[in-house]
Specification:
By secondary structure, the chain is α/β, with parallel strands linked by helices. It is built from 11 helices and 13 strands. 42% of the residues lie in helices and 15% in strands. The chain binds NADP nicotinamide-adenine-dinucleotide phosphate and guanosine-5'-diphosphate-alpha-D-mannose (GDD).
């Protein structure tokens, strides 16, 4: 039985990846931060099948002890502050978790389990103000937020530990991926969840920022398969993962409201406060290297993703309407897509 350690197991990707690895017979250990309560909702359904260890990307000693205790063969580093606007509010914390946290973990791996395989959750946000379209592994980075700058550091330190110490360390440059477990602040889930509430008569407006921004949106379940595939190759390498299709926020809104048989123009309000200090206008992936070497293809299309998310949010909101106050906790679990 192989052992995988996942940092960020309580997040969208961590929960999907844990399920994917359990299905393949892995011993799955998740690293979680000490907190005053709750927030294991996304992994509630698999809680008995996984182990959790406490640790924090800020604490070198804790990381070293975690690796000594778990002795993982595969390490998936998914932890970090992932909401881009928050990185302008907390630029230093972003650098600590998302940039230096990766050095801490890589260095602990170098000393404790140098033969393990390491996956770093890099991001298409690193391409920022893009130099070419579509973006591929060789496209230069132009970060447009403290988040993206921290991810660019993390990407290069992963490459550097591979080249300096011969570690098996990969960086997956993943484009936006979504699903019913997406946090409510991210634009796709904000749209599907608010639209479902509008449909059921609970809201009458949806406030958004820049509708013209374009993203390459895929389904999170497809993307965790790519992470795993990267760690099964004879040699460590970096891969762009995305669908190759770009859609604007406006197109996403239109498709969601059309599916619900609503006219989006009646509900959407542009709120200048939601416009970012520096925007990333267009991201679209050239994932041909992943297709060629990993044999990876996305299975869920743009419209299928939208229908999946809207259906889940309609079910969630209907359930909440039926849920007495005492059952709020299980309603919260459903809010992150866990039945
Ligand atoms: P997410 O749902 O926000 O999950 C983030 C995870 O990181 C949570 O489990 C969180 O734990 C944990 N975390 C945050 N700070 C930590 C710290 N200091 N120590 C330990 N754990 C910490 O994000 P996601 O969508 O699953 O994304 C996973 C990773 O992929 C992130 O690094 C993100 O930046 C990157 N990424 C995501 C996408 C995407 O489209 N989803 C695309 C490219 C890259 P708590 O529960 O304790 O908060
Ligand atoms: N969140 C949000 N809320 N975004 C909005 C809104 C709004 O009300 N209105 C318009 N947008 C636009 C943003 O300006 C951005 O251009 C786009 O919608 C997508 O925003 P998010 O869903 O917040 O995602 P992101 O692209 O900034 O970042 C996500 O993808 C990255 C990969 O490219 C996150 O998951 C990052 O962690 C990830 O690295």
């Amino acid at each position: 039985m192989r052992t995988a350690l996942i940092t960020g197991i309580t997040g969208q990707d961590g929960s999907h990846l844990a399920e994917f690895l359990l299905d393949r017979g892995y011993r799955v250990v998740g690293m979680t931060r000490r907190r005053s309560g709750g927030a294991l909702d996304r992994i509630a359904a698999i809680r008995e099948q996984i182990e959790l260890v406490e640790g924090d990307l800020l604490d070198q000693t804790a990381l070293t002890r975690t690796l000594e205790r778990v002795q993982p063969e595969e390490i998936y580093n998914l932890a970090g502050l992932s909401f881009v606007p928050a990185s302008w509010q907390q630029p230093v914390a972003t650098g600590e978790f998302t940039a230096l946290g990766v050095t801490r973990l890589l260095d602990a791996m170098r000393l404790v389990c140098p033969t393990a395989r390491f996956y770093q959750a890099s991001s298409s946000e690193m391409f920022g103000k893009v130099r070419e379209s579509p973006q591929r592994e060789t496209t230069p980075f132009y970060p447009r937020s403290p988040y993206a700058a921290a991810k660019a550091y993390a990407h290069y330190i992963t490459v550097n530990y591979r080249e300096s110490y011969g570690l098996y360390a990969c960086s997956g440059i993943l484009f936006n991926h979504e699903g019913p477990r997406r946090g409510l602040d991210f634009v796709t889930r904000k749209i599907t969840h608010t639209a479902a509430r509008i449909k059921l008569g609970l809201e009458d407006e949806l406030r958004l920022g820049n509708l013209q921004a374009k993203r390459d949106w895929g389904y999170a379940g497809d993307y965790v398969r790519a992470m795993w595939l990267m760690l099964q190759q004879p040699q460590a390498d970096d891969f762009v993962i995305g669908t190759g299709e770009a859609h604007s926020v406006a197109e996403f809104v239109e498709a969601v409201f059309a599916y619900l048989d609503l006219d989006w123009r009646r509900y959407v309000i542009i709120d200048p406060q939601l416009v970012r200090p520096a925007e990333v206008d267009l991201l679209v992936a050239d994932a041909s290297k992943a297709r060629r070497i990993l044999g990876w293809e996305p299975e869920v299309s743009f419209l299928e993703l939208i229908h999946l998310m809207v259906d889940a949010d309609l079910a969630l909101v209907r359930n909440q309407l039926r849920t007495p106050r005492a059952e709020h906790r299980s309603a919260r679990r459903r809010a992150v897509g866990v039945a």
